[in-house]
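PROTEIN FOLDING TASK:
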Amino acid sequence: MVTILNIHKPRDRSDYERFAAYHESFYRSVEATSVTPFSPRALDRGLAGTLVALVRLGHAPMTPALGAGQILNERSALDFAVEVLGDRAHAHAQLPSQEADALRQRLRDRAKDLLDEWSRIAMDLSNVGGQLQYQIEVGAAQRLLHEFLNPALKQQPPRFQKFWANRSMRDVEPRVNLWLRTLDDVEIEGDVS
């Protein structure tokens, strides 16, 4: 945020004098966003990143940058992540028992699908002598995770689109460029005297 004040304007002077009070209440003007846990949209946006993080941090052989390729050797040990996510969904859900069980199973199925697809990606790369890393961390190895708006994602096979890992659960918009022009850049029409 940039604030430009002119001391000769009463409103600007008032804003300056009340600047601390304004900033203390800054967020009252910001609409709160919410994410409904385990909703389909939340899972689309966050499950892949959560699963990959859980696997990477929860199983030592998967931790190094190139550990993403270790799924070929460690796949059977990674079902713990599927169970943790399923149990978390079940425990969170304030639903009747049967619906909570169904939510747990849907989440487990999606997590297993992601792990299986991850394994297929790693196998395909391994078959051609390539390596898989989580993000761009070392060398030219293929990355598993992509940000939603990453242009490279459009050039990847569709299965890579399962591995979005946004840095925020809020809606993602493309960047906006801001160009500043000075008075020197503007032609002034008419006579200035």
